[in-house]
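Quarterly update from the structural biology core.
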Amino acid sequence: MDTGFSGFVSMPIIEAFPLGLILCGTTTTILADGSQSFKLTAVGTAFIEKEEQAGIILLNVGSGPSDVLVGMEFLKTFRKTLFVHDQVVALLDTDEVNKWVSAAALEASKLLSTAIPEPGLHEIQAASLVSEAKE
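Predicted structure, tokenized:
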């Protein structure tokens, strides 16, 4: 997993040949250092357990990573969220993560609403004290 790679999958072209990937075009990518790199592209299918999704695979010709990389488009396509904590790295279902985040936000708002007075309450109390002092 390369979080700096916005694409679906990137792999060396030498590893693509045995897979029989179908070439579909070319592209130029911009690397982290600002340089540009020419890539062939192919259509391919990736699997996570029993789910399969098609996407564009960048083929590294000569330069580029020598490993197969999955990028952020891979996560988006499979609706996965990368979770990293201490020694744990996991792919979680994005819909489940969204439920957890919503539940946590709701709980936090409940806690905040009981800890923070209603807007204007201090002003009403202050006005009442000033009124009583004048009488």
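The two ends are 72 Å apart (CA to CA).
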